[in-house]
Write a structure and sequence with these properties.
By secondary structure, this protein is an alpha+beta fold. Among the domains are: 70 residues; 56 residues, Nucleotide Exchange Factor Grpe, Chain A, domain 2, CATH 2.30.22. 63% of the residues lie in helices and 15% in strands. The strands form 2 sheets. It has a 3-stranded antiparallel sheet. Strands 2-6-3 form a 3-stranded mixed sheet, with no helix packed on it.
Length: 198
């Protein structure tokens, strides 16, 4: 009997004390608030208004940068168009100045033709003007397209007519050139008009 009493007293000492559930909830809320405060302090979280101000400032900076870049590109585009127009204009001017010198030569030759009876001198003068003109064309990138004796190619030649070939080797070949063709820097500016053997 004595043993039972001791056991009962041990059990009563192990029994937890009567704890209020509201106190537990309050403690949990306090610890949660403390944890939230620590996390927000660690993250450096700021007032939402301050965050909005920072974002607005960043947006304004980017927008300003974009507007400046766009304006700069527009100025560059206009300047480039103007420069191209001036290059084309001045390039055409240079060509015309050189042609004017050839016109001067022709005028001198025509005056000499009317005043002189020396046929050989007139022919020599015309040959000089012609060679000067051909040289001028070459300087400006204009070259004659070779046609005679070459196989006909519709990408390069314009066939005016065909004639029966006297020889088997003349079939499909350019046998005559009615009008010369020219290319400017490898671009055909006038197709040669040719007669093709068949």
């Amino acid at each position: 009997m004595k043993r039972n009493t001791n056991q009962h007293s041990e059990e009563s000492s192990v029994k937890p004390e009567n704890i209020n559930s509201e106190d537990i909830v309050q403690e949990d809320l306090k610890s949660e608030d403390k944890l939230t405060e620590e996390v927000s302090n660690d993250n450096g979280s700021e007032n939402p208004n301050q965050e909005l101000e920072k974002l607005q400032q960043k947006y304004d900076e980017l927008n300003d940068s974009y507007l400046r870049l766009n304006a700069e590109f527009d100025n560059f585009r206009k300047r480039t168009i103007k420069e191209k127009a001036e290059i084309i204009k001045s390039g055409g001017e240079r060509v015309l100045i050189n042609i004017i010198t050839l016109v001067d030569d022709f005028e001198r030759a025509l005056s000499a033709l009317h005043a002189s009876d020396d046929r050989d001198a007139m022919l020599e003068g015309m040959d000089l003007i012609y060679s000067k003109f051909i040289s001028f064309l070459k300087q400006n990138g204009v070259e004659e397209i070779e046609a005679l004796g070459l196989p006909f190619n519709s990408d390069t030649f314009e066939a005016v007519t065909t004639i029966p070939a006297q020889d088997e080797s003349q079939k499909g070949v350019v046998v005559d050139c009615i009008q010369k063709g020219y290319k400017l820097n490898d671009k055909i500016i006038r197709f040669p008009k040719v007669v093709v053997g068949e």
